[in-house]
Design goal:
The complex is a heterotrimer of chains A (295), B (328) and C (413). Chain B is an all-alpha fold and 328 residues long. Chain B contains 14 helices and two strands. Chain B has a single domain, classed as ABC transporter involved in vitamin B12 uptake, BtuC, CATH 1.10.3470. A two-stranded antiparallel ribbon of chain B has the order 1-2. In chain C, the strands form four sheets. Chain C has a five-stranded parallel β-sheet, with helices on both faces. Chain C has a four-stranded parallel β-sheet with strand order 7-6-8-9. In chain C, strands 10-13-14 form a three-stranded antiparallel β-sheet. The chains are: A mainly alpha (295), B mainly alpha (328), C alpha/beta (413).
Chain lengths: 295, 328, 413
Amino acid sequence: MTTDLFVQSLTSGLTQGCIYALIGLGFTIIFSVTGIINFAQGDFVMLGGMLSFFLAKSAGLSLLPALLLSILIATLIGAVLYLLAIRTARRASVVSLIIITIGAAIFIRGIAGRIWGANPVAPPFFTGDSPLSILGASIQPQALWIIGTTLVATIVLHLFFSYTMMGKALKACAMNRTAATFVGINPRMMALIAFAMAAALGALGGVIIAPLSTTSYNVGAMLGLKGFVAASVGGFRSQIVTVIGGIMLGLVESLAVALNWGPFTSAYKEAIALVVLLLILLIRSRKLSEEERAG
Amino acid sequence: MLAILKRNKWSYLAMVAFLFLLILLPSQWFLGQKTFLLTLIGINTMVTVGLCLLMGYTGQVSLGQAAFFGIGAYFSAILSTRYDVNPWLAMLIAAMVTGAFAYVIGYPIFRLRGNYLAMATLGLGIIVWIMFKELSQYTGGPDGLGGIPNLSIGGFAFDSNLKRYFMVWFFCVCVLLISQNIVRSRTGRALRAIHSSEAAAESVGINIAQFKVKIFVLSAVFASLAGSLYAHHTHAISPSSFDFLGSVMILVMAVVGGLASIWGAIFGAATIQYLKSEILVQLGNNDVIVYGLLLMLVMIFMPKGLFVSLRDVYNGWRQRRSQRGVVT
Amino acid sequence: MRTWLYLLLVAVLLAAVIPMTGCGGNEANEPYKVGAIFATTGFNAPLGEPEQQTVNMMVEQINANGGINGHPIEVIAYNNESVAANCATLADKLINDDKVVAIIGPTGTGDSNAIVDTCDNAEIPLISCAAGISIITPTATNDKHWIFSTPQTTVMVVQRLYDYLNTQNISTVGIITDTAGFGADGKANLSAQASTYGITITSAQTYNTDDPGMETQLGIIRDSGAEAVICWGTNPGPAIVARNMVTLGMTIPLFCSHGIAFQSFIDLAGSAANGVIFPAGKLPIADNLTDADPQKTLLLKYRDDFNAKYGNGKANTFGGHAYDALSIVVKALENAVQESPKTINSNDDTLKAVRAKIRDYIEGNINSIGFPATGGFPGTGGVFNMSADNHNGLSKDCLVMVQIVNKKWTRLQ
């Protein structure tokens, strides 16, 4: 492998990893606050991308309004999902909630496919597509947008959770739902906010990556899975570790391709992600059972 | 083993009635046209029962059952088409391989609980699916394998929908009886103990891990058996049947039937398969939308499964009726 | 006790099912019923959707023009959701419940292979819209007597491409293929045919359908010293490959498969699409055909009608495969079937006989014997010459080499 190729695969991996990180953050926020795995998370990403394309094209909006409106609409859909599907289910079991969010994902995907058709689309690049050369690798300006936005989002979220009232309330809910109610926090309101935030994050990820990777109605499934793995690295609780996990996943995938080992086809990239997931879970299971025995 | 005989006479009658129904169903005056569907229901019942046992009696979620279903199907298909192995032997080998596989991954995986266990089974299911797609030398790749022969005994080949219907349901009834047996036996009591309280179960000396893995292996073997029969029924298989959505469908069949019930598995399988073949197909490409919507609605309003919820509604109505009689 | 309740419920379910099994339309003018299976959702949807749309459009047109010998036609179409196993259920439904005279589709090779045995056993003609040659190749258990297909097979497409590479003296290529069925099929054929044409594959890379960037794979191909890149897949992969090649500053030519014969490829790839060359049926360059070409009129009509109904630029070669399949069945009904739909729909023996007649007609007459003036039956994919040992009827000469110049399709050869 030449140095150029190595650097190239690093930049590709980093770019992709940032997307996984954003999706992973969405999973983490919802899970930590509500204990629910949102299988529709990847589809929020899809909605962000698809909406930005069709708002820009059909409604003729210019770039920034289209992006903001896409994220807003996706956030609303996330809130509606929570209100209509999750909250109505009341004290549903783990299995029920899993099936509900899966049903929601399928439903959203189906509607998207019906409205927008099956063909992939690509919104316009934010700042054009003239490649930049960094350390011998060619990188699209859009990739820099992706990396930059992820960084900013991570920092903003960290500040939000650490220094704002709302953020701290969410964190309290994440730590201990019952105790949070004692101090006057409404867990259902927190859950609603968590869903809305996750949808917004997902849609943000969607709008920044869609110009580069193109998007279509069913990209949600695979993206969701990768983000899921990123979130599992962070134990579904730590945001920073989730982001690191996502980026590492992207890098590992990219390097695996760069190594160019014969029998390894790209399909195995997902297998890598999942093996990582299983290893993480198994390592954590040891920790969990140790805690249980101790406590 | 003798648990079967410890039943009351109503159970016997119910059993006989059920068998009678099974024999009558595929006749021309009844549902003969739907024999293909009825056979599919039988196959899916076998997979669903395994999951019902796992989830209902041990409380463990599995989002990857389609993997075992697929391993059974692929081993049967590959061995009988490419290596000319007797299909019955292939089915046996498939079941053993699947069982061994479940045994090996069972122990590490069942140290996890709840959501984490679900995630682990999810991951496993997808890894297996990727293997189906990528080991194309053996599995035929994304387009799958065709030309799978019929099962046969001596010169008698199961080459028509009707013949396969009876063969599949024969296996299915056996699976149901075995499951029923387990539930009513010591093992079953142990399982229910585990389900209600693992700590308590452990305190009376039940080896939890061992039981969970045992049931996991059993569910895997049932799924493998069903998968083999599936391969010999549709004569062609491809990875797309064994992906995450495939596992979801098995889960849905189990939940709709009611997790803690063996015979409910038939109901769950029948409902979902019927929905797929008769109702959703009429909707063109709106079928996905309706399916997603139904999943949400059923789980929101009838989380204990259609059957149990209907029974609750019925009981509730009866209760209110009798109460009304009191107030005059 | 519980068991009783269950049985009761099963009985109720059955009671709901039975009335469904006996429905029939009592229309004054009963239609000929043709079955179809397309993947309008799932990963094959970009191919299945235009196929379904084509059939819908054709049925409208045929019925508006008086139908077939005075009788309307009805196409009962089901969606297999890109899941091969669903095709088995759907085929069974079409054959036994809906009692169709022939089945067109399915969309994918795996989908089609799932039902070749069912159709063979049921003795009903199947005209597949998938390109795998395995569909029509006889096997030990199935002589494919009843199975036909309308797309140019992947073998042919690869051969046509390699022919062109030979004329351009390109002998080393790097291939990058989609891991899904279409791409995997392409990769297998590219590898298999390479040595026959004296072509060396210096690097074989893959990508997943939804991958956002293939720079790494292309970098490897560039470093392997290939003279050209061949990309085999359906959108969006090849468009991203095209863009990545521009990003990396790669100047070697990019060849793609017929999977990019969609306007959306040009929309997605933008200016990176210019210069890309691919083999395809004649639809993209229909305007450039000579008037003597027997396909010209029908290609232009199909394209214009499709675009008018579904949107500008939407017509593509995959919808064309469905057009050909249904046209062939319609021709068989017109010329070989005297029985009225009423007789067919009410008598199983007549149905059986009609299915056989359609099959015989397709094999015996969709060729230069039945259509001597045009040297075969003209369709969108090519001029068909079916025979007892060729159930596809096309050859690589039905394909043309197309290049995208100024975001428009132009003919090279």
